[in-house]
Amino acid sequence: MEYDLIVRNGYVVDGTGLPRRRIDVGVKNGRIAKLARLEKVGAREEIDAKGRIVAPGIIDAHTHYDPQITFDPYATMSCFHGVTTVLAGNCGFSVAPTRDRDREFVKGVFAKVEDMNPIALSGVAWERFETFPEFMAMLEGHLGINFACYIGHSNIRRWVMGEAASTRAATSEELAEMRGVVAGAMAAGAAGFSTSLSPTHNDLGGRPVPSRLAAREEVLALAEEAGRHGTGSICFLPPGTSRGLTDADHNYIIEVARRSGLPVIIQGLGASSKVDVPGAGWDDAVKALDRAQTEGAPFFSLLIARPFDRQVAFDETNHHWQAVPTWHSMTRMPVPDRRVLLNDPVARKEMRFAVENQNRDPAKGTTLPAPQWPVVFIESSPTMSFDQHQGHSVAELAKERGVAPGDFVLDLALADNFETKLRWRMSGPDWLGAVEKSQTDPRIIIGTSDGGAHLAKDDQADWSSYFLATWVRERKVWSLEEGVRQITQVPAALLGFPDRGTLRVGAWADIMIFDPQEIGPLRKEFVHDLPGGVGRYKAYGQGVYATIVNGQPIVIDGQLTGRTPGRLVAPV
Description:
Blueprint: E1 3-8, E2 11-12, E3 21-22, E4 24-28, E5 31-36, E6 43-48, E7 53-56, E8 58-60, E9 83-88, H1 103-113, H2 118-121, H3 132-139, E10 146-149, E11 151-152, H4 153-161, H5 172-187, E12 192-196, H6 216-227, E13 233-237, H7 247-260, E14 264-267, H8 282-294, E15 299-304, E16 309-313, H9 325-331, H10 335-342, H11 345-352, E17 376-380, H12 386-389, H13 394-401, H14 405-415, E18 421-425, H15 429-438, E19 444-447, H16 463-474, H17 480-486, H18 489-495, E20 511-514, E21 520-530, E22 534-542, E23 544-549, E24 552-556, E25 559-560
Parallel strand pairs: 1-6, 2-7, 8-9, 9-10, 11-12, 12-13, 13-14, 14-15, 15-19
Antiparallel strand pairs: 1-4, 2-3, 4-5, 7-20, 16-18, 17-18, 20-23, 21-22, 23-24, 24-25
Helix pairs in contact: 4-5, 5-6, 6-7, 13-14
């Protein structure tokens, strides 16, 4: 037999943006060997893609799968949505390097910042690695999906400085040692360097994560060291990430890009906070992008092209009110104590407008944006029928009753014995209009799944299915061919993965087969399938019929095949 695999009868959309072709794909030794009509040749394995699109596998540029990948080689749920390559280690946090004595600290950072359960994190094979090269070597041969990883700044500081990483700036000697750690990681295949200066990022003790203690020159020096390798990218969260970027933030980003020579990828450009859409600030953001481009300082921003859709409950699963201390502590109380609290006039006065006036001072704790009442809806209530709240936000329902939104929600929670389930949905005409406008700028990258993190809130693994359903099929912002290119070839080129992201002879055979009329999000389900029986939300989709990694199917008709053809991916 001439080929290992032939995908027959499909419409090949090759990732370049060129029109589709009705041809077959022949695969040999993990790579694409032929794009042609292959009726008269055979293969050890065949897939009939009749009537479906055969496209490159999706490349997800922003995930936190580095803990999960050690016990889940497929990076579920992303693989079920056609993703074949994930980039982890974002936001300045990576599993490695981690010394034996620092494991609990690093687990605590993941638990606090990325909402990962400490019990589930115990499933990581920490004893098998300490350095970044050791971590990458441990994964070789044990991957279902392709995996790339940044080296995180907070890990680097903790490795070199120990406990002092959380209290002070580095000395010149420590900085020199840190540069050596970055150089070693890049030589071992790191995708680049990631760091966070975001005021929302604290450790379990409430202290700023180590990267936030870094002086400006330290950040620039480590980015420069990554750039000495000549390939890769920088994940950078400037101070304004959670509250809206300022001119000072834009200048910092451009300086990082200039010093490193690498693409610098941020989040939330043009928005008033990380969770908002590019609104009134978009025109100023474009000016910053234009200036960076003129100066040869590559500057890109990830865009959340799928709205937030997260449950907000009155129990310990709710992490959304961390910057609203009175509300957050209330969800951790026994139910009888909550009743006493909410019936206390003094406490109620303090809580009435607390969500709208959340903490915005990093010195006082996290500034994580809380869901605001105009985009919070009632999902279920034992005492309020669906007809009473259907389609109306909390802000609208409270206005109808002439009360403050905070009072409306707390009164409903009391009436429901705290069984009320709210839903935070960042959607509506303003959201759609802003995202539609900004996503067509060539410096904007479609994505931000955060895969592997925030699993108790929302598994956003369905972002790509949402993009192809909403922005390509329904709203027609992109042609199918160009929409596919935006989530395949574009991130591959940006991240330095030239053998990924397109279907061409000689390239790795990472393939997604889908029905363009069916693809889209389907449902969310809370299941207990992480180590220790820990639960998470899983975002299921529809319309993806196969995910093929390096020429071998890892998902067929929504089921894992059990194969592990994934590879470590390094920028070249």
